[in-house]
Every structure is written in C-alpha cells, then in structure tokens.
Amino acid sequence: MAITTGSRAASRTRRPLTLDSIVRGALVGLFVVLMVVFILGPLLWLGVRAFAGNWTFPNLLPDDWTLRWWQVVVNDGALGVAVQNSLFFAPLTVLVSAIICLPAAYAFARFDFPGRRFFLISLFATNAFPKMGLFVTLAALFYALNLMNSVLGILVVHVLGTVVFMTWIPAAAFAAVPRNLEEAARDAGASKLRVFASVTLPMALPGIIVAAVMSFLASFDEAQGTYLVGAPAFMTMPTQMYSLVLNYPTQVAAVFSILLAIPSVALMLVAHKHILGGQLAEGFQIK
Amino acid sequence: MTIHEPLTEPLAGTTKPGTAASGGGLTIRGLHKILGGRTIIDNLDLSVKEGELVSLLGPSGCGKTTTLRMIAGFLEPDSGSIEVEGQEVSHLGAENRPSAMVFQNYALWPHMTVAKNVGFPLKLRKMSKTEIKDRVEAVLELVSLLHHKDSKPARISGGEQQRVALARALVQEPKLLLLDEPLSNLDAKLRVKVREDIRKIQQELGITTVIVTHDQEEAMSMSDRIAVMNAGKIEQYSTPEALYARPETEFVATFIGSMNRVEGSLNNGLIARGEDILGIRPEDVILADAPFAGAVPATVERVVPRGHFQEVYVRRADAQLRSFVSGELMQPGQQTYAGIRKAMTFRDGRLVEEKGAAL
Fold first, then answer.
1. Which of B100, B107, B154 is closest, CB to CB, to A282?
2. CB of B1 within 8 Å of any CB in chain A?
3. Going by C-beta distance under 8 Å and a sequence separation of 6 or more, which residues neighbour residue A176?
4. What's the CATH architecture for B2-98+174-253?
C-alpha cells in the first residue's frame, strides 16, 4: 500500500520534470541556433568569402576559389602600413596606460585619500558619454595643441579608452592581496619596494594581465577616435577597414577582417592559458 | 655575523633558559597605545628572559595582539621602549628588527613554493644560492617538511602550512620569535601535537619566544611564564602553576581554570554573606557519602559527565557549588555531604586571603 502510493507520487513528480526538461532542451537548442546564426554564421561567411572568386546568388558555395584577395592585401602598401601602425599603437598604449594607471590603481587600493571615491567613479566618465561627442571636443582641443595627425594625439585617444580597465581591475587585484602577506615580507626583512616587487605585484599579476589584454584589444579595435585624429596620416587596421569596405571588393574586407582577428584570438588563448591554468586558481585560495 | 654561519651550528650550541647572559631577551617599558580614541595598551611593562617562552594570554580585545604587533614593528607605540637583547628597537621598521613572526593565518606567499617561502628572508640577506639551499633544507628537516619543499602552500595541509610559517621564522635565526595565535586554525588533536612540537623546537634552539593566545590550556602547557592581560594591562605575570594556585586578582582566578564565585566569606567551612568575593576551585569542593569535618549536607542538582571526571552541581544551605569529582557517576537528587577544602577571598578584585579548611 505504502509502496504503491510511493511510486504514484514518484511518477507524478516525474511528469512535470519531463516537461521541464523539454522546455530546457528547447531553450538550449534555440540558444545554440542563435549562436550559430549570429556569431558562427558571419564568421563562416567571412572565412569562405576571403577565398571566393565569383559567388552568384542562389549558390551556397562560391563558383570558384582564389587566393587573389590575400595577394591584394599583402601587396597593397597602405594595408601593410595599417598593420604596422596597429601593431605599433596597441602595445605602446598598453605600456603607457600601465605606467599611468597602475600606480593610481595601487593608490586606490591601498590608501584612503580625500576624493578617492570621486576619482574612482569619475573614471567611468570617459565611457559614460557617446564616444563621438567626446572625440569631437577632443579634436577641438587637439587642433589648439597641434596634436592632430600626430602619434601623441592618437596615443592620447587610445590611452583614454583603456583607463577604466587599467585602473579598476588592477585596483581590485591589489586590494585582494592580503595585508599580512605584505607584513610577512616586511618581517622577513624586505624594504617597502621589495615587498611590492616580490609579493604584491606577483599576486596581483593575473588581474593586471587581464587588464592589459583588455586594453590591448580596446586599442587594437579603436576606430572612431583614431580616424578623427589620425586620418589620413596614420591609418590603423580598423580605420583602414572603413576605406576598404567602401573602395574594394568585399573579399578584401573579409581577408582584412580575418587578419584583424588574429592578434585578438592569439592574445585571448595565451591569456586564457596563463590566467586559468596558473596562479589565479591557486593564488586566491589563501584566506 | 652569526648569519653567515651554517644553521646547524647554532642548533648544536643550545642555550638553556636561565643560562643566558644578562641584558638578553626582551624588555618592554611603559608601552602605551591609543587607537581610535581608546586606550588599547596602558603603560605596559614586560620582561622576557633570554631563551624563555612567554605567553600573552587574555580575552579578545585585551590588547595582546596589539602588543605583539608593536614588538614586531607593524604598529608604532605612542610611548614606551622596546628592547631586544639590550638594543632599543621601537624606532626601527619591521624589516630591521631582530624578531621574526609567525602569523595567525600563516601568511605564506601562495605564488612561491615551500622552499622559496622559507628561503626568501635569506635571499633578502644576499646569501649565495647554495647557502640558502643548505639552510632551507636544514630548517625544513627540523620541522620535518623536507618532502614538501617543492609544493605550493595551497597544496599542503593546515598543520604543514603552520610548520612552514615556523620554518620561515626560524631560518632567520631571530633573537626573538613572535607567534600570533599560532594554533587557532588547527583542529583540536593537531593543536596538541603542534604545540608540543613548537615547545620542543623552541627549547632545542633556546629562542626567546612570545606567544599570543586566548587559549589558557595552550598557554599553560607551553609557557615558562604567562602574562595574563585584561583591558590593556597585565593582571599577573607568573609561572603557569603560580597563576592557577595563587591568582592575584579575581579576573585571573576566573580566567584561568574554573571557579565557584560566591559573595561572602568562609567561616568554619560555612559561607557567610558579605561584601567580599569568595573563589573556590571546583576540585576544592569535596563530596562524600558520610559526614566529615567541615562538611555540610547537600543535594546533587545536575551532573555533567566530562569523560575523565564529572562536573557536579550541589546545593548546600549556604550556596550552590560546582565540584569536579571522579568515580561512580552521581545522580541528580542524590543526598551527599559537601565540604570546602580551600577558598580565596577577593576584595576590590584583588586577592586578600587564602584559606584552607581543616579537611
């Protein structure tokens, strides 16, 4: 008697569970389809497009395949310069941003000074307004300072876009370093500078690497401000994209997009390996 | 410079407590500290002989950790002097003091291996790689952790982390070893073992040691002397035995061990109501089936078995008393006779009289 009721109760609870799992399965399926259509689809199209000759309408695949567009990109002097410019500005931006922002991040994390919260919040200001509006006013200032079409001008624009990452993320990382780990190093005989170099910095490094990767990508993808301040003297890969889309066959833009994605993907893979496989996991187990 | 001698040498030449030259150890005079408008340490004096292990014992907030942090150099005293082996250190930063500290949560650097953690203080002293390696291995051997030298701290157990922290302090050959609640993060069984290990190593090396703890059992079992602290002051500073047998204040008597606290005074084994505070240790309340001199009929009210002994609450005509007795388990409601073997009398918190009844 008791067993029958038990099994009936079990079957009763199983039925809504099946319905639940159907709904869940459908949602997962829908999510996968959306991912494929909107993320993988364009990438796939891009990959095919870069090697396509003619591609007439109803055909699912191109009529013929070619490496011509890659040749065009490699041989085009302006495009090569754009690649060089991008690879010049992105690391330089990360470096300058780190030099300016990391000490600030440390100060935000470790010292309580008047206006600390105000400064911390106001860092968001550069990201709170429409970027184009900021760049137009910046351009007016740059004309006055003779910074238009200059390396310094572009650098300023790029660094501005990275300040938030380079301050907030490392500040959180510095703040997460337990005080008594630093005290233990002092006790062992280390000077304040040595404590920072041997304990604080290595422990905050995963956070700093994340910030550096994000800054690199932000600089690498920055187009609006660079175009406004740098064009036509300094064309980077994203700004060159604008003229490519307008002036070349779409295949060239496809080739260029793939090239533009390579550093980002490479950087993400390296960062992923180092951050998830390395210290971050172990380093933060300490109480 | 003793620092350049191999570690084995000072290990071999052990200094027994008491045989030290004068001027050794730690001397604190007139230490004062106000934090956030509150007096944390109030004109504290403390002297620790060379090779001696002293515990600062007290409830949380009594200022024991603050005192230790001032000795270590993480906190600057408002006034007073701290001398280590006759050298004034209160103006020095933590990195320049001849003391080494073991932190409550060990504070091991998670990005370094055990050997790197222990070797870091030596690296700062610009020793050669081979010398660092030899010394690190010698000290890891001492705490029996050599097999873990290439492990990261997160991969070893709490007790092992504790020993790494101890090794990191010992490798510096400090003139003064400071331990902040060293056993509080360990489970009960391990705590007993580690405290014996610490005491053994401390005696072998003859290092002057100050331990901060809130655990009286820990302090009683490890220390040469105990300074019981309360509200920023030292209430009593004496050996563990004296602390228990002759507490100078009511606070010490209640804090160390347990005590029946009764208002009144003892007259021919009977408690008469009065202004004074009577302190009677539970083991000094004697229970017996038959009447004996100084005993009064009593009723057992509650029995708490405690393993090795039982805690018995008895009601006499004059007071309710707690007694520790061994033997057959007593029953609530049982009639018995209770006599007081010894009692301490406190007036204004201080011991004024110690009376033993003729039992």
1. B154
2. no
3. A203, A204, A207, A284
4. 3-Layer(aba) Sandwich (3.40)
Residues in Cβ contact with B292 at an 8 Å cutoff, skipping those fewer than 6 apart: B286, B337, B339, B359
Q: Does the CB of B152 have a partner CB in chain A at under 8 Å?
A: yes
Tokens of B97: 């003091």
- Residue A243, domain extent: 78-283
| Two tokens, residue A90 | 């992105």
Give the residue from A142, A163, A160 showing the smallest Cα distance to A230. A142
Flag whether pLDDT at B348 surpasses 80. yes
> For residue A229, what is the domain's CATH number?
1.10.3720.10
3-state secondary structure of A280: helix
For the segment(s) B259-356, the CATH number from 2.40.50.140, 3.60.140.10, 3.30.450.40, 2.40.50.100 is 2.40.50.140
Calpha distance B322→B311 (Å, rounded):
7
Is A178–B96 a contact, with Cβ atoms under 8 angstroms apart?
no
Q: Cis bond leading into A238, ω under 30°?
A: no
CA of A287: which chain B residue's CA is closest?
B105
Place of tokens 């190093």: A185
Q: Is the ipTM of this complex over 0.90?
A: no
**Local confidence band at B321 (pLDDT 50, 70, 90 cut-offs):** very high
* Domain spans in chain B, listed from the N-terminal domain onward: 2-98+174-253, 259-356
Query: Could you tell me the CA-to-CA distances from A189 to A202, A204, B107, B283, B347 in Å, in that order?
Result: 18, 21, 15, 49, 49
User: Nearest by CB to A187, which of B72, B104, B111?
Assistant: B72
CB-based contacts of B330, cutoff 8 Å, min separation 6? B287, B300, B303, B310, B312, B336
Distance CA B319, CA B339 (A): 12
Mean pLDDT of chain B: 87
Contact with chain B for residue A243, Cβ under 8 A: no
